[in-house]
Automatic annotation (TrEMBL), chains A, B:
<dbReference type="InterPro" id="IPR001647">
    <property type="entry name" value="HTH_TetR"/>
</dbReference>
<keyword id="KW-0804">Transcription</keyword>
<dbReference type="InterPro" id="IPR050109">
    <property type="entry name" value="HTH-type_TetR-like_transc_reg"/>
</dbReference>
<dbReference type="InterPro" id="IPR009057">
    <property type="entry name" value="Homeodomain-like_sf"/>
</dbReference>
<feature type="domain" description="HTH tetR-type">
    <location>
        <begin position="8"/>
        <end position="68"/>
    </location>
</feature>
<keyword id="KW-0678">Repressor</keyword>
<dbReference type="InterPro" id="IPR039538">
    <property type="entry name" value="BetI_C"/>
</dbReference>
<keyword id="KW-0238">DNA-binding</keyword>
<feature type="DNA-binding region" description="H-T-H motif">
    <location>
        <begin position="31"/>
        <end position="50"/>
    </location>
</feature>
<keyword id="KW-0805">Transcription regulation</keyword>
<dbReference type="Pfam" id="PF13977">
    <property type="entry name" value="TetR_C_6"/>
</dbReference>
<dbReference type="InterPro" id="IPR036271">
    <property type="entry name" value="Tet_transcr_reg_TetR-rel_C_sf"/>
</dbReference>
<protein>
    <submittedName>
        <fullName>TetR/AcrR family transcriptional regulator</fullName>
    </submittedName>
</protein>
<dbReference type="Pfam" id="PF00440">
    <property type="entry name" value="TetR_N"/>
</dbReference>
DNA sequence: GTTTTCGTGATACGACCGTACCACGTTGTT
DNA sequence: AACAACGTGGTACGGTCGTATCACGAAAAC
């Protein structure tokens, strides 16, 4: 047999190329030939590792969401050890804002997938898009945790505020993406909302 | 000459067909033949009234935004004569939530356009997508108007709250679209936020 | 009544896309 | 050494899409 290549690594490489092209030309305009050229391989190779285009798109989506999860944990970890609930929530929300070029690509393509799933049932059946409920649960849990620590505004309902924060972050994200708002302005608005929900911690 | 048809009306009809098809199959999958079939005319007709596909898409976008404006004013007018600022703001925001089938189509296609404009500069140059700033100004103005009437929470900044409300409505809208949230839940969250910003009016 | 212009239909063309097929070298296995 | 499985390249096929072309009837203009 030939070189005995690592298929998973190769697939990931091609997946990255897919995201790059999608960020540049739009997910709808991505062809297998584009992906092959971006990855520097032949069209046949893309066919070989993902038999069909649908497979390629599905794998790209999976790769994207996994990458997002890694970004969140990396950001949380960068916030220091044993971070408070607010720090974690803030890291989670800020990650979903397109600030640099890479996160822009991330968000554009991920939003394209979500929108595509509305009219494409094969995509809608994928588990990676039904997961945002998990984010809601996570934030709700963090807010309740904050409440027990006395860090939450007294009249705040955890789940309602969690939903609000996530929807707000998503809305701000797309407005940044379309150029209607600067990343700085978006983070400021998000932080303002966080300041409302979280109470100042007692000075020790 | 033949029947001397009203071109504008015909164009609007075809534009409606475009939106219908886009809502069913996704904007990316819309072909001129689909639009023609949906409108019950021949492909040649679509070509005749809109020379190119780009023209067709542009006109569809324009038609969509105009329809949205009409929806808002209709909803405001339905709220009774001489409505207060909160009523107007609430009507504006609620209109942007996909509740029935028609507004679902509205929002799906409009969001698709917005996302398309990120990677397509010909679409991005259209004025109808740069306008949401106008919505921000409008809501800001209404909030300031409310402040002067003593209807606003004292610590609220008009523009920040306007941006928050619009981004929140957009985020909630897409989550309703993707089926992660019911329309009822979304309106409840939105109203909760409005209750926070607006103060109870003095009993007369 | 002739001519010209407008609206409409049918069909064709070139390009691109996803997929399938065929061929060949390479590297393990026996 | 012989053979089989794997990875890779090149290329062709069927379909669809946007667009262009040809043709024809119907009404307004003169």
């Amino acid at each position: 047999m030939p070189k005995r290549v690592d298929h998973d690594e190769r697939r990931a490489e091609i997946g990255r190329a897919l995201v790059q092209v999608a960020a540049r030309k739009g997910l709808h305009a991505v062809g297998m030939r584009d992906v092959a050229a971006e990855a520097g391989v032949s069209l046949r190779l893309v066919q070989y590792y993902f038999h069909t285009k649908e497979n390629l798109l599905l794998h790209g989506l999976q790769q994207l969401t996994e990458g997002f999860g890694e970004r969140v944990t990396a950001r949380v970890r960068a916030a220091g050890e044993n971070p408070g609930p607010r720090t974690v929530v803030e890291a989670l929300l800020m990650t979903s804002l397109p600030t640099d070029e890479e996160s822009r690509a991330f968000h554009l393509v991920l939003t394209s997938y979500a929108l595509l799933a509305v009219t494409d049932e094969a995509l809608a059946a994928q588990p990676y898009l039904q997961r945002p409920d998990a984010a809601e649960d996570a934030v709700t849990g963090l807010l309740e945790q904050a409440r027990e620590a006395g860090l939450l505004a007294p009249d705040a309902d955890a789940r309602t505020e969690a939903v609000t924060l996530l929807a707000l972050a998503a809305g701000l994200g797309t407005s940044v993406l379309t150029g209607q708002r600067t990343p700085e302005s978006a983070t400021a608005v998000l932080r303002h909302q966080l300041n409302r929900i979280f109470r100042e911690p007692k000075a020790s």
